[in-house]
Amino acid sequence: MFWFTADEHYGHKNILKYTNRPFSSIVEMEDELISRHQEVVKKGDFVIHAGDFMWTNKRYVAERFLEKLNGTNFVLKGSHDNWIPIMSPYIWEKQIQQDFIVVCHYAMRTWARSHYNSWQLHGHSHGGLNPIGKQYDIGVDNNNFYPISYEQLRIIIKDKPNNFNFIKK
Prior knowledge:
Blueprint: E1 2-5, H1 15-18, H2 26-40, E2 46-49, H3 59-68, E3 72-75, E4 91-96, E5 99-104, E6 119-122, E7 135-137, E8 148-149, H4 150-158
Parallel strand pairs: 1-2, 2-3, 5-6, 6-7
Antiparallel strand pairs: 1-8, 4-5
């Protein structure tokens, strides 16, 4: 099973006030994010984290958090991921069943195969950006602090309008 998430901001104390998260402390937030991740993601699942995973410049600190999380976790570089090497990927693309999916920390106006109604999943906006076409904010602030599954996204995206550059066959 595929899961998608973004903007966890582990270790980022100020994210509580910047996004008005309902936690009394960074420790409470981190514990709840881990608990919700574990609740839905199973050992054999694959999780894409679309950036801003952790506020640190020490890779071993971020890896300790990743080791706590179920599934195979793949982290794309976001705005605050200074622990990830500079040459690491910013974009992940994959066809799952009939859906072509493009994941990036940032929302895009156009993306790979957008003219064929591919999806663009992003974070960065913390639920504050209106989507265009087959686009969705997978960040924890937009999803009750849970990762969101491919199956859940299929239900959400099927009713979204075509991408503005969709080519009708």
